[in-house]
Write a structure and sequence with these properties.
The complex is a heterodimer of chains A (about 160) and B (about 625).
Chain A: E1 28-33, H1 36-41, E2 46-55, H2 62-67, H3 73-83, E3 87-90, H4 92-99, H5 105-117, H6 122-132, H7 135-155
Parallel strand pairs in A: 1-2, 2-3
Chain B: H1 3-6, E1 13-17, H2 18-28, E2 33-36, H3 44-49, H4 53-56, E3 59-62, H5 66-78, E4 83-88, H6 89-105, E5 111-117, H7 131-137, E6 141-142, H8 147-164, E7 168-173, H9 174-177, E8 180-184, H10 201-204, H11 209-230, E9 237-239, E10 244-248, H12 250-263, E11 269-273, E12 276-278, H13 282-289, E13 294-298, H14 304-315, E14 322-323, H15 338-348, H16 353-356, H17 379-393, E15 403-405, E16 423-424, H18 429-439, E17 447-451, H19 452-469, E18 473-479, H20 508-515, E19 519-523, H21 528-538, E20 544-550, H22 554-559, E21 566-569, H23 579-584, E22 589-592, E23 595-598, H24 608-612, E24 618-621
Parallel strand pairs in B: 2-3, 2-4, 4-5, 5-7, 6-7, 10-11, 10-13, 13-14, 15-16, 15-17, 17-18, 18-20, 19-20
Antiparallel strand pairs in B: 1-8, 6-12, 9-11, 21-24, 22-23
Helix pairs in contact in B: 2-8, 5-6, 12-15, 17-21, 18-19, 19-20
Classes of the chains: A alpha/beta (about 160), B alpha/beta (about 625).
Bound molecules: iron/sulfur cluster.
Iron/sulfur cluster (SF4) binds next to helix 23 of chain B.
Chain lengths: ~160, ~625
Amino acid sequence: MAQRYGSVMGFIRIGISVKSPLFDPGEADYILGLELTETLRRLHYISNNGLVIAADEYKPSYAQSVTHPSLKAEDIAWKIKSLWPKTIIIPARRLAEKAGSIRALNMVILGTFNALSNLLSTEGIKTAIRKVLPEQATLISIKAYELGYLYPQQAL
Amino acid sequence: MLAHTIFASPGVKVPLMGNEAIARGLVEADVRVLVGYPGTPSSEVIMTLQPYSRELGIYVEWAVNERVAFEIALGASITGVRSMVTMKAPGLNVTSDPLLSAAYCGVERGLVILVADDPGPHTTQTEQDSRWYAKLAKLPMISPSNPQEAKEFTKIAFEISEELKLPVILRTTTRVNHTVSDVVLGEIKKIQQEPKVPRDEPRFVRAGMLWNLERHKWLNSRLQLVEDIINKYSLNNSIGEGHLCIVTEGVAHDYVVESLEELGLLSEVKVIKLGLLYPTPRKFLLDNLALCKSVLVVEELDPYLEEQVKIVLYENGIIIPIYGKTTGHIPLEGELNKYIVKRALTSLTKINQISLLEKTPVSSQDVPLRPPPLCPGCPHRFSFIALKTALLKKGYKLSEIPIFGDIGCYALAVYPPISMLWTEHSMGASISMAMGAKIAGYHKPVVAVIGDSTFYHAGIQPLLEAVNKGVDILVMILDNDVVAMTGHQSTPAWRMSESGRVLRPISIESIVKALNPDLVVTLDPYNLDEMISAIIEIIDKPGVKVIIAKHTCALLERRRSIFESKYYVEESTCKGCKACIITTGCPAIIMENNVARILIEDCNGCGLCSRYCPYKAIKPLVKGEKP
Ligand code: SF4
């Protein structure tokens, strides 16, 4: 849904039998956050054994910039971690830029997610990337995916 | 959708969005004419097929509004080719006039109206329940639950339409249109479609009152046939047995099944799913409800099915409790989810509440809302800031100059810090409502703000009315050369449509000039000072003054890489006063650690913020350089 610069949440369900498109708060096995305040906003979706993977991006809304100008990325990251210790914050901007473009930030998250969840085949993901993106973006995206994939090993 | 999916062979399973599934359904059904007006959540059906229009031999175009789109499709269908028209729910209101007459003349080849309702609402002005339109217009309506059904029901709708010789409404909701799931593709059939315009005055001319009476009888007799005709398509079905029966449709059905499964109730409850919503499948409902001890109706929006169930049971002398929206078990507003369905189920069965409504491990956090703002570099931001500045310079209070808005991105100017919109009502209403305020005797200036596509859609007649009656209003047409909010669709000003059709561009300026208002100026809002002086100069003048603020949508310019430079905040100079943010509300500027920062990837280089920094901390960045 087009909500440019607004708050957007997508529900993804993977399984043999998926009956309906949505799930309720407290049911998410994973939360993949592209931005910290938005991750915090949706944190109540996490399930008892859930894992939060979030980019260390801080893009506060207008309201937050005006009312809380002193906040910074670390403050929100700390808040998320204190509420939900099973959280990994990734330096996603740095890794995406290393891969060639900040726009590949989502691929970094996907890489880390897959390294930790083992839910999807890396080959499948790469094939999908090649299918939908033009060549230059494909190379960057795959590189970003790989950097994200390796991140948990290197960080631990 | 990718080309290989459009043309893929039957049996292949691919993940498709509901709207893409409908598009593939149209290809499988050999539809020849597809028209509509952009509107979330319906737009992707047309967008999916536009690039393949030529290859497929389908006319796929946006029309100037839904009503025109509908009439094109009706004309095509009467001439003997299968046609579809797509729209969001309010579009059906715009279409309602020809829709009702179409039930009297009927069609030759199939005509299907896709209307997408928006429980929530996510992106629509009302939580309109378009199911009532089926009853009002007396037209068959069917409703799928998921992408696979969306594709199948599309094809079935054409079959039913041709069998009954009536237009059929395919009604969806956001969660059906926008959900992506696996869809098994079907055969692409080619059918013989010969264009031939039938001449039959009693059927097609609504000027003869006796003819109209006869056609009404004809229509009623067709509706009698519907339930028997649809039997072969299994649009309605039921599973399970039990004293409690649930009647449901659309995506609500999926929430019901999943909730029952999770509560372990699947074997104790009977689920009756309706695919045909109008006319009410009386026989099917009666057969399935005969042994029930109570009924729960689970549906989104109004208690439409609930009323139909009550009618059918009453007619047959069955008096059992019926739960749903009337009894408060299902809310009257907002969209459904599993939680709501489970809550209703637990209150009607013996399930222990505590085990069901488990607490979430983290409670919901209080984070400031993030309504969508105008984009970085948006020309509308310039227009509104110019208007605000001009009004203030002229000595007006912002609270005394009403600004009647319209539907489009520019309505986002309602949010702080711009806060320059008093109304957003329905397509085209800005000009006529502003006129109404003047006629009512409001003595200060009034302003109407309308976008280019909305002006083409429904703003021309209001402007004609205002000029004709001679009221004193300022009309600002914010022309960004695209239908931006719904995903950048073409307007009548384009030279070529998305499907490659060569268009004859019709400029806003030429239309406005033809209507002959007292004053017309076309300005580029990026020239802020010029805009400000123009508004100051004309706001108090008598008559209809039109400013066409013409500048391409910033996102389109960005795609065409028109922006040369970007801006950055020099950290050592920034005093953290927030002036840049508070004047512009640009989402590319944030405050972090008490200094402003421009998100380089979001900045579109318009430079508006730099104008308002009292310390000159915002500077242009030379290409390739890092801040
Ligand atoms: S207006 Fe200038 S000084 Fe004030 S916050 Fe913005 S950049 Fe910093």
